[in-house]
Amino acid sequence: MSNETYHLINKVRDTKPLIHHITNYVTVNDCANITLAIGASPVMADSSDEVEDIVGISSALLLNMGTLHFRTIYSMKKAGKKANSVGTPIVLDPVGVGASRLRNDTALQLVDELNIDVLRGNISEIKYFAHLHSGTKGVDAAEANTNNLDDAIAIAKKVALKLKCVVAITGAIDIVSDGEQVVGIKNGHPMLSNLTGTGCMCSSLIASFCGANPKQPFDATVAALLTMGIAGEIAHEAAGHIGNGSFHMALHDAVSKMDAQALEQKARFL
Amino acid sequence: MSNETYHLINKVRDTKPLIHHITNYVTVNDCANITLAIGASPVMADSSDEVEDIVGISSALLLNMGTLHFRTIYSMKKAGKKANSVGTPIVLDPVGVGASRLRNDTALQLVDELNIDVLRGNISEIKYFAHLHSGTKGVDAAEANTNNLDDAIAIAKKVALKLKCVVAITGAIDIVSDGEQVVGIKNGHPMLSNLTGTGCMCSSLIASFCGANPKQPFDATVAALLTMGIAGEIAHEAAGHIGNGSFHMALHDAVSKMDAQALEQKARFL
Amino acid sequence: MSNETYHLINKVRDTKPLIHHITNYVTVNDCANITLAIGASPVMADSSDEVEDIVGISSALLLNMGTLHFRTIYSMKKAGKKANSVGTPIVLDPVGVGASRLRNDTALQLVDELNIDVLRGNISEIKYFAHLHSGTKGVDAAEANTNNLDDAIAIAKKVALKLKCVVAITGAIDIVSDGEQVVGIKNGHPMLSNLTGTGCMCSSLIASFCGANPKQPFDATVAALLTMGIAGEIAHEAAGHIGNGSFHMALHDAVSKMDAQALEQKARFL
Questions:
Q1: Which of B14, B108, C65, C163 has the most beta carbons within 10 angstroms of its beta carbon?
Q2: Which residues form the signal peptide (chains A, B, C) (predicted)?
Q3: Considering only CA atoms, which of A2, A92, A60, A81 is closest in space to residue A212?
Q4: Closest chain A residue to C242 measured between Cα atoms?
Q5: Burial letters for A140-159: b for 16+ Cβ neighbours within 10 Å, e otherwise?
Q6: For residue B139, how many other CB atoms are within 10 A of its CB?
Q7: CA nearest C47 in B: which residue?
Q8: Smallest Cβ distance to B54: which of A69, A100, A248?
């Protein structure tokens, strides 16, 4: 990894980009606080009457499908079109796609109607996009054993090419691809999956890094995932033995203290 | 209490049941995290366009009336009917019933239209259900001094028989009844009432235990209330003297570390 | 500051006023918990079908514009009219006014249609109200350098006179004015701006103090801001070096432990 990737965090802290979230009400507080912890500034606004105004003053737009409903879906599309028209990067977190037809349809509409810059999800969420328009069901690479790293890489590349965006599959090993480059990140800790919203927070970090570094979505995504993975390791070391509550707090502590040096020293790639 | 009750927690941790919450936006993050801390998996979804799909993949449905509005009331009914039709247990938390006509009407409709498996509330909330259809006002047992344990037990039994469900009245002493059996739990700490959402979290734990042990709603409810009460004691011991924030974190710590042995050793019954 | 101001906190803890919040879904949990930490009791209800009932049992109404949409705007107006009609104090937190036309229009409507008792915001939010009905743009005192304390005081006074309410401008130095009296509070810590919702929590504290001391909105506001500022200092001392998560928890700890003596000993005025 080039030195420059680690230093993208400085750009976040120096420029304090405003990150417009249209997101769920479950993890929204953690998303706002993690955005502040990395040095960016969150604004949550989901009324269709104001999303265009808010996109207009923001450096990145995050669309998180956690608690979808008709009102916010409409706002997501309206905000996304505005973001595309002014060149503001869009990060899409398709929470729970595959779990309901509403989520499937919405995810499809969002990637059809908008140009997404970064798509982040777990393997089962990203697999959904590998099937889109593929005309096949059940015979896709996506159907293969997803514990298999090679398959995850293949899915990331395929979806990145299909949607012309950066794809991040987060899990025990995080995979980032833009269709050509692929990076695998080994940082992180299983305890992250014991808290709600660590995936959502990852997406907020990606949006923060993209907002500060809009020309480098791939490197920004890698730096954001390194930040979360390394913070998870530090939080586990500090408080994992005490329990979930202390780990939660320590995770916010670790992100707020993160810097380029820690990223460089602790990064572990595939 | 039979040994088996304490071991219901193992079934939660082993089977990781998916718990569908239609809940309020105030305490939802704590509810999601406590569900994870006990070993279950939360999904929050309130759009009427998807609640049937989500019920279809869930092991229990929790309806929490904390921040009611017309959209979510409709979703609660739709989700509840689906849950009843497929035999998925429903836990109802009638937050604030008695405080507004909207809450009163909604609570009435929910127990009329749905078969509820477990109803949990504080004494004033549960009293509301004792009056329903009773044709009397003010001359009911529910009107009696509710500091009186005998009255609370009578109300729990009456409501359980009326609604054909398990009723849990939480407070200084928790009462659980299915209309015949009654258990009183002395665990807990007054500091729990200094945090928002400890009642809601109780309901999430009940839903988690019921999702993993759907044939034993009474024992599952007892085990869930023991978990919360004992966790409150452990959290108070660890951090109560520091203040509400530390106690809050320690409560999540304690639930995440809870096991059958701790439940058995620390349980205190009436 | 008179001794009596510091002792307003005792009235909050002794009377446990119910504080009706119509607020955003980002910081709502912190608002509920800080309300409990100061000794009041929160109720969050935003359905137009019940807000009048809830106002009817509450001691203060807090309108927070954080995540506005048409449904809650209507509820704010309905609740506010009821509060005015029964003499319940209203605190308005115009979050993000200036950032979108929706927020500007809503803020204007709220101050036009309702009698607000306390308005709290940062300098850029309060400046918006200095312009209202002024017929001028860009030549107002509000346009002056807002790092300038004299300008902030002038804006606070002007808006207080215009809206006939207490105005609190929070920032490095908090300014409170009712149009005649002005108090400047130097307590606080820059780290408060690293957490989401510290402004919202301030407003919840103001509403709690006003609910318990409805005849003294000016002193209640001063006492609430002292509480938050001093709690920020204590939290920073206890946990600021660890990071944002620990600071967040310590802030709740400090508010829950606050008393009149600490307020008196640590208050620092301009």
A1: C65
A2: none
A3: A60
A4: A253
A5: bbbeeebeeeebbbbbbbbb
A6: 9
A7: B69
A8: A100
Candidates A196, A244, A249; nearest CB to B29: A196
Give the distance from residue B240's alpha carbon to the nearest chain A alpha carbon, in angstroms: 14
Q: In the block, which residue shows the tokens 């569908």?
A: B20
Report CB contact under 8 Å: B50, A26. no
Task: Locate A239 and state its tokens.
Answer: 């408080």
Please state at what angle helix C28-37 crosses helix C198-212, rounded to 10 degrees.
40
Q: Name the pTM for this structure.
A: 0.95
| Cα separations in angstroms, C149 against C96, C130, C142 | 21, 16, 12
Per this entry, what is the length of chain A?
270
φ/ψ of A170, rounded to 5, equals -100, 145
What are the tokens at A120? 């982040």
Which residues from A are below 8 Å from B59, CB to CB? none
Which residue has 């979806």 as its token pair?
A159
Q: What is the 3-state secondary structure (H, E, C) of chain B?
A: CCHHHHHHHHHHHHHCCEEEEECCCCCHHHHHHHHHHCCCEEEECCCCCCHHHHHHCCCEEEEECCCCCHHHHHHHHHHHHHHHHHCCCEEEECCCCCCCHHHHHHHHHHHHHCCCCEEEECHHHHHHHHHCCCCCCCCCHHHCCCCCHHHHHHHHHHHHHHHCCEEEECCCCEEEECCCCEEEECCCCHHHHHCCCHHHHHHHHHHHHHHHCCCCHHHHHHHHHHHHHHHHHHHHHHHHCCCHHHHHHHHHHHHHHCCHHHHHHHCCEC
**C61 Cα distance to chain centroid:** 11
Per-residue pLDDT of chain A (270 residues; tens, 9 = 90+): 788 999 999 999 999 999 999 999 999 999 999 999 999 999 999 999 999 999 999 999 999 999 999 999 999 999 999 999 999 999 999 999 999 999 999 999 999 999 999 999 999 999 999 986 543 333 333 344 446 899 999 999 999 999 999 999 999 999 999 999 999 999 999 999 999 999 999 999 999 999 999 999 999 999 999 999 999 999 999 999 999 999 999 999 999 999 999 999 999 999
Q: Determine if residue C44 is labeled as part of a ligand binding site.
A: yes
CB A252 within 8 A of CB C248: yes
* Count of all residues that appear for chain B in the document: 270
